[in-house]
Each structure stands twice: as C-alpha cells, then as structure tokens.
Amino acid sequence: MANFLAFIELLFNGVVPVAFISFFGFYLGKKNIFSYEDAKTILKFVGMVAVPAMSADIVLRIDFLSIDSTLYFLYFWSEIFVYLLGFLTAKLLFRVSLKEAILIGAASAFANHVLYVYPITLLEFTSDKINPVINIMAMDVLLLSITILLLDFVSTKDISVGELLKKQMFNPPLIGLGIGFLIITIPFDPPKGIGRIFEFISTAAAPCALFALGIILSIRIDKNQLKLGLVVSFFRLVVHPLVAFIIIILAGGYEVDSARTTLMVAAAPVGLMAFTFAPKYKVRSEAIAISIFWTLIGSLFLIPFVGIMKM
Fold first, then answer.
1. 144-153 pLDDT, tens per residue?
2. How far is CA 149 from CA 103, 117, 164, in A?
C-alpha cells in the first residue's frame, strides 16, 4: 500500500506537471497558435540563455569533497556505451546525417536528471545519495560541451583545430561551466544574489523546452522518425539501465542501495539538451521529441521500481 501511494504521489506531483506543459504546447500547436518556427525560437532561448545559467547553477551546487569518483566513472562508461550505440544505430541502420547521428547518440545517453530524478531525490533521499546525481548533472554538461564541439567540427568545412577551439569560447554549456568554476574559485564569498540569478534563469529551461516539445509533436511526423524515436526510447529505458546495473553492481561491486540514485539516473527519461540544440544545427528533432514523450511515460513505472529495488 505504501509503495502504491508513493507511486500515485510521484505521478501527480512529478509527472503530471511535466506532461501538462507539453500537452499544452501540443494543443496550441494543433490550433496553429504556435508554429514550428516559434518552437525553434523558444529552443534558441533555452540553448543560448537558460542552458549556460543552468550549467553555472549546477557547478555552484557541487560538494567536491563528497564526490565518489569511482561510482561516477562506472556510470560514465555505461553512458559512453549507450552514446556510441545510439550514434552507430542512427548512422548505419537509419542512414541519417552525421550531425543527426551525434544528437541521437546524445539523446540515447543523456538522462533527464535535472527535471526528473533530482527533484525526486531531494524529497526521498539524504544528501549523500543526492550528491551522485549532482555530479552526473555537472559532468553531463561537460559531455554536452564535447557534443557541441563535435557538431561544430562536422558542420564547418575545412576548419582548423585552432579555429574550432576558438569557436568553443561561444559554446553555451562551456560558458556556464566556466562562470560557475570562476565563482567558486574566487577567494571570497560572492553575494547570494549571483547564485540566485543563475538559479532563476535556469528554472526556465525545462518548461520552455517541454512547451516547444509539445509544439513539435503537433506537426506531422514521418515513419522513419517514429521508428528512430522508438529505438532511442528502447536504448534509454531498457539498454542503459541494464548496462549501468551490470557495470556498477555486478562488475563494480557496489550495493544497490549505495548506487540507487545513480541507477535512477540511468532509468530516467531522455534529457532535453539534445532536443534543445537540434534546431541550431539544422537537425530534425521529431525523433528526439517522440523519445522524450515516450520515455517520460515509461519512466513513470521504471523509476519507482528502481527506487524500491532490493538485491
């Protein structure tokens, strides 16, 4: 009974508010009040303004003294495996462009920890279990920066290494990371208002991206994108949790309880970052949008299972 009540609480307090904003965007898209171009403009704000603020906010929340580097790197290898699997599947089986394959790999590997797992852990777990989630959030921002570097490389012909690195000075997630690390390294406590600015702006990222998601889902989607979205959803909700369990629990020797919140991240829905940056690189985003929607529904059952799983 207690588990059922926890499930109902997660459904109405965690999933319904998230789903509502996407359904609202879907409805307004169907009514032609918002268009695909409007969705791209919203995503441009998220990618260029909200994401750097979110990156800085995450860095300011890290407790560097409590980082379990072994646990993180075990998760990292599971993430890299799924990233490469998504990339190769999209490129070799679906024959999409190199840019789209990179973003499909990112969508398959990057979880929605900021919007989905982190709020749950704040309510249900102690700080020592929350810190691994924050660490993954921070390192995923770095991996996203590397993804953007790859996208810049394949998008620009005959670009030199120097020019490519210079271009990363305008890489939004990397800018946010740099600002965050600059603040924590200054030899005095900055005003609290600085941190609150980043926190305030970053809260706009998720609802704006989810609203744009609903608009994009309201347009006609071809069968190939539907199939690709199903594959990404399978990688996100089935392959990644299994690979993370094998690497962290069976091979790494961690107890389930010690790695529970990390496993919850592995079972989380598709993250929003690959979707956010798709329009910037002129990549179709329908498959990623579909996978976000389907994995939000699927994780409704998977996350509570991982949260109470015993071994």
1. 888 998 998 8
2. 12, 27, 8
